[in-house]
Amino acid sequence: MSSEISSILLDQADRLLAQHATRERLAEADEGGWPEALWQAVEAAGLPLALVAEEAGGAGLAAADGMRLLRRAGYHTVPLPLAETMLAAHLWAAAGGAVPEGPITLGPCNEADALTLERAGAGFTLRGRLHRVPWGEQAGHVLVHAVDAGGTAHLALLAHPRAGNALRRNLAREPRATLDLDGVGVAADAVREAPPLAAAGLLELGALARAQQMVGAMERCLDYGLTYANERKQFGRPIGKFQAVQHMLAIAAGHYAAAAAAADFAAQEWGSARFGFAVAVAKARAGEAAGAVAEAAHQVHGAMGFTQEHPLHFATRRLWSWRDEFGHEALWQERIGRQVCAAGGAALWPMLVGA
Amino acid sequence: MQAFQFDAVTLPPEAEAMRRRVRAFLAEERAAGHLSGRGSWSAFDPEFSRRAGAAGFIGVTWPREFGGHAQSFLVRYVVTEEMLAAGAPCGAHWVADRQSGPQILRHGSEAAKREILPRICAGECFFAIGMSEPDSGSDLAATRTRATRTEGGWLINGSKIWTSRAHRAHYLIALVRTGDAGEDRHGGLTQFIVDLGQPGVTVRPIRNLAGGHEFNEVFFKDYFVADDRMVGKEGQGWSMVTSELAFERSGPDRFLSDYQLLAELIDRVGKAPGERQAVEIGRLVAHLAALRRMSTAIAGMIESGRSPGVEAALVKDVGTNFERDLPEVARRIVAVEPSVDDDEDGFAAALADVELHAPSFTIRGGTREILRGMIARGLGLR
Description:
heterodimer; A: alpha+beta; Butyryl-CoA Dehydrogenase, subunit A, domain 2; Butyryl-CoA Dehydrogenase, subunit A, domain 3; 3 domains; seven-stranded mixed beta sheet; three-stranded antiparallel beta sheet; 12 strands; about 50% helix; B: alpha+beta; Butyryl-Coa Dehydrogenase, subunit A, domain 1; four-stranded mixed beta sheet; four-stranded antiparallel beta sheet; 11 helices
């Protein structure tokens, strides 16, 4: 797809998300409702299949453009498993599978969880349990990464097993479910060898998506903060005229810009030999920025930002959750640190510049 | 939010070809014992600058008729980042290459261009910056050093301060008052090229807290400067200094000042770091990777003719904070007592050097408080 068409598609998606992710729907989702009308609008626009090749019925967006779409979804704090569905659909199509309709989630979503796959007659049996699967209860399908006895990584697409799930919600009240998949049978045609991008698991792709979503949500926080600082008057002038407020927002803007640059880096390295490093950089940097930007945005808004009435919390509560999902900063920082130390000081510069 | 933009840049093949050339040059320098591997870009080594000039690494973007190499800003970017990462002693030619030369190229007289630029490119002519004054640091509009008309030129009286390397440079570009400031305070300022070897100018050293002699106070007493040494037009000094500062602030020298310490820290920690060591080093590397990405985007903007004022201020603010953070992290994760003269423990010496110079990182080229004011204005805070 040409970059011009991608830009048009992204602009359309942005308008669609702005129009349909209303605060009434966000509030309903907070109360535990599944925003079916919003999902219908998103699905009708083809967004869940944005990263699926055109031959396979998708929009065939380049990975970097798909990541830009996730930023817009983060900006509009869309209460749907859009990122999860986009990634799962991409992977399943890349593995040669037919992508089902409806929302798809994926797992494992953290470093501690792992699934294994055992032969059972003509099919397979899964072993293990997945914690905190996004919309694990609501999604029609779950794409899981599981390793067989020979060490080969597979993807399995499960029509959602509803029983026995511990339902939890994150700080943004987005559903996160524990899926007990131990002993769940999978037909042979629902299991495929994992494509290279997912061979080592789904943590990197999930972290990449959360990094993009965080960049979008941080942009929203800054927009709210800048608008409020120019409107709210105290001591006879807008609070944005006070140097203390200006510097707070300038520092937050620096965090945002660095996070966006790191997320760009990871999007650009999609599938390359440096992908793992770039994703770690993106998730670590965006996660650190998320806390700082959310803090500054709240401080600027004063008590108003602490209310349910002001929509700032839709963005900040997601930032506080997303920074911990698919590995918190320390996990990715440690990975970078171990990689860099193992290679030695002289190897760092070539690693940074990719040459 | 449309306040700023960091568009991703892919470095072109000629930039990567240049990277290989610079690395080959630096490998030879290292083999010949000219690179200590430590020390920041500000180390002053005229012989190194001459060799760098001969190898074609100065005036990379300037036209060939003035001794330059007519390459893109992205190629120049690669030259600077490779020099910085290697800790090459670029201090002698840095200011001339980064900002004085470009100012002269764009706004200088034909005579000044012909006389000075080829010598800069050859690594034989060094510049200092004549902006700050005793009563005018961050507030450059308060400049009081004055130039008054005389036969065939101007007489300058007053003083400049914090003038790094003025005692070793050949020239500085002085920002002086030639008229009234006007209501916006930005009028009546003009830039001149000052030859530091001519009578009427004296240089007094100011030692820094590390014991080094880098900056100076420079006094002018009826210093004569010819008309053709004016840079730009009379009264244009403010806008020129603003664009000059964008060059000064935008480069990788604003986050790589102590890069060598990071490389040494990694080696000191060793191949099997503890969890906390790995986390802290990983955090620094994540910051650095993001900064480099932002910085290449700025080089791309300069190349495409845009003026990255707010973006440059952002990178300098984030970048110099990273530079300040690095020694603090280093001392948290490695038990070492820094020493100014420990010639057995290179890491202790490197840490000492960085700790003692770190306060300057967030001051030189515009304090972070000034930068944050600029960023806030760029964000639309009125």
